[in-house]
Amino acid sequence: MMFTLTRTERFEQEIKKSRFLAHAAPAGSEEEARRVIAAGSSPDAGHNCWAFRIGDIYRFSDDGEPGGTAGRPILQAIEGQGLDRVAVVVSRWFGGILLGAGGLVRAYGGTAASCLKAAEREPIVDYAALSVACAFADEARIRSSLGPFPGTQVETTGFTADGVQLRVTLPRDLAEDFTRMVTDLSRGQAAIGPAGDRG
């Protein structure tokens, strides 16, 4: 199971007189990740190196540090903790002592990892949306039988001559059991299918 962050987290440390400040936040899209990076970057820092991962999309930047010493280690910190939909920027203020390539990899990767370790996280749940057309009497029975389906939301989207049209959003891995429950409750009368995406 993959996790994402629940809120923004910051972590700061000093390594051989260089100051490193990590800023990590949840990001549901590439656009949101770039906003996190812009907000977390410090204009007075020598380097603002960053990485993000959103599903199969990942990007990183060394921002002037030697190639492969900053952005990739930050991305590895994200992946190493089983995180997704996350953006991290690590700002560095040079303290006068050169760290060398290995030292930079450890400093950027370690600062990002410490920041992510401290962050509150939550599991990423993949949701499915179903359309259910059922009789009025069945609607009440469906709504009162949602106990075994945590995280499920039901909204009425319209009415038909015979009953009601519902949009049900629930964790994808519960969709099959939910469909079976509705079929049993309505004695096969309810029509269930994927709901069209709105917006």
UniProtKB/TrEMBL annotation:
PROSITE patterns: UPF0029
Gene Ontology terms, MF aspect: guanyl ribonucleotide binding; ribonucleoside triphosphate phosphatase activity
Record InterPro entries: EFG_III/V, Impact, Impact_N, Impact_N_sf, Ribosomal_Su5_D2-typ_SF, UPF0029_Impact_C, UPF0029_Impact_CS
Swiss-Prot/TrEMBL GO biological process terms: regulation of translational initiation
Cellular component terms per the entry's GO annotation: cytoplasm
Keyword annotations from UniProtKB, A to Z: Plasmid
TM region positions: none
The keyword Transcription is assigned to this record: no
Family membership noted in the UniProt record: Belongs to the IMPACT family.
Name of protein: YigZ family protein
Organism: Azospirillum lipoferum (strain 4B)
